[in-house]
């Protein structure tokens, strides 16, 4: 087990280095760059530009810049934002809570509902319930999220006036209820797609298990239908779902670009878009690294959980 | 055979009267079983025998109340004590399951929940019926594990099913079924997926437990050999109808119905007569194997604990054209590995394979490609080995065309071969799902023959087929060999089948060839202990007489 973990960690480090090199190269090789915004300043001279470049360390060769960045990263210094001069880690830290709140709520909600729908549909395949949720899932998956967002704002904000159109809280009112009020619409809109995805996977996983011999054995023992379903069917169907949940981890923190933009939610997705717009490379690189770490962490945790649940995997 | 007292007529544990079960619309027949009546007498073993589709498993599932929802009982009754199982409420049926009627299944590999320990799964039966405290149930589970002859019950209790062999899993299933001392045990082909020696042990176990507890057993099988070993009385089913029933003696010795006679005749018997050939042998061997070796390695190279399994150790033999060599052994004996080495589906670790005088063992795929058509394989599973999305014509011609045969010539040859293997030429444009298992295996044979091979390797080619179909396929292979002079390697776990078709037999155990000789030697005068054990384990040899 220890050997397996060491192996995985080593692989992860190599992957992170590769991801960071690619990210760094792509960012810096695209035209424009952090200096382009200064170029538009009236009266800017080439001399002044060079001086700014030197101050920011942008006149050095790219590999040197990369090594410098990497070395500082290892020491916990992720650089400072070009936009407001704050440390990158602080900037990310400020946005990560908002995203956690939104994505955490919506993920928990969609896994719970999606799992229930999936099992319910699989135990009554081709019933009216199964058909309606199948069609519902197709609709949710084929219409873009921002459309649902806009329709939601139109109905619940403009027409009915029940829910706020955006932001995380009303300025001057930091109460829990106020947060909750703002949270409802964006998390429901996000959940639409996630419930659809999750319920489809869960339905398939359950159908795979439900016709296996050991389920028949469980019935032959005289177990109640409820116990057959919960213990034997769902227990086994959940194994592949753990891996899927692991892949959701990066998106929990990575944020939902579209939804956060539609609802002006101050999360990681918004931060990423804004930073790109400002050519704030240190922040963009920081976000890139966070999401790469989360992808690796998510799949590692999922693999460990699967090994914990499924004894057949443990020997490997 | 139990010598039961004919005067004290045993009471029925289960009384089935005029039972009719419907199939969903659009199936090949209307009823899964129609109007069947029989009694399962207390303290007896009743065998229900029939081929696939005869309705025997449906009958068993109906008793358990475990029919799939698409299949429903449309008439008749199944009485167990005071209860009619056909109109009992789901709650009553649930309460009877596991407590009064237990069931064990064909495939012990898939019948246990992979995520639960053996102990928990046995415990669950008692838990479901609210029996005993946690400690009582644990003690009872351990006692049951001992009773079914599993070694080290304490360790077994905490083991997960994947650690156990097929025979051990079937013992766990039996322990589970016995937990609440049910009056009736339904066994649905419980030994079909097991090796002969394991099958013999499990049959002994069921027989022994049945006698000790006076249980009534309904035993579903397709093998008259098993019937001869275990049955008190027999029901023969064909197409959902009972065509014959009576005591085991009566049915085996003096079968009345032609279907029963056919089934009994089709049971492969040990033949200790060697095959005879018209022409004098002595031509150069097609294939000559010398000291062939293969090892499997598992586990990580970095973190130690590497496991090495010697799958094939120093195999040597030669095979002449027109002759058949049987490779016999239990699962894990290395017989399939040897077969795969011969057709170069995997590379060997050492030794030579001389095919037509050339050593093919060290050849790279590119070199071997021109020789591959000359060595063809027939696979075990006629359902999985044909691409469901290709027409039969395409399946037959794709290989030869890829090797440069003109498409028109290939289709002509394919149609001719289809007729040769007993299908009509119209099969050419149809898809695999339109054919039965036996027909698909004929297609598999035709496909192998398209290349006019010099060597055919048949890996368990008849194991998945019903006995009567098995006999037909063996005959077909025999005819083809006599006509074409192809050499054949016949890999099987069934000594009876091997004895009928092979000139020579290799017996393998744990990667080693422990015996090599003609059937007459293997069966009349076996040289190794292992061969003797295998021969002794063959079920129902008494009916060969």
Automatic annotation (TrEMBL), chain A:
GO terms for biological process: transmembrane transport. It comes from Pseudorhizobium pelagicum. PANTHER family: DIPEPTIDE TRANSPORT SYSTEM PERMEASE PROTEIN DPPB-RELATED. Its main location: membrane. CDD domains: TM_PBP2. This is Diguanylate cyclase. The keyword Transferase does not apply. It is found in: Cell membrane. The lineage of its organism: Bacteria, Pseudomonadati, Pseudomonadota, Alphaproteobacteria, Hyphomicrobiales. Residues 96-306 form the ABC transmembrane type-1 domain. It is a multi-pass membrane protein. It comes from the Bacteria. Belongs to the binding-protein-dependent transport system permease family. Keywords: Cell membrane, Membrane, Transmembrane, Transmembrane helix, Transport. The chain crosses the membrane at residues 12-30, 96-119, 131-156, 176-197, 237-263, 283-309. One of its GO terms (cellular component) is plasma membrane.
TrEMBL record, chain B:
The keyword Iron-sulfur does not apply. Keywords: ATP-binding, Cell membrane, Membrane, Nucleotide-binding, Transport. It holds the Pfam family ABC_tran. It comes from the Bacteria. GO terms for molecular function: ATP binding; ATP hydrolysis activity. SMART domains: AAA. GO terms for biological process: peptide transport; transmembrane transport. Transmembrane segments: none annotated. It is found in: Cell inner membrane. Residues 14-264, 287-535 form the ABC transporter domain. GO terms for cellular component: plasma membrane. The keyword Transport applies. It is a peripheral membrane protein. PROSITE patterns: ABC_TRANSPORTER_1 (PS00211), ABC_TRANSPORTER_2 (PS50893). Belongs to the ABC transporter superfamily. This is ABC transporter ATP-binding protein.
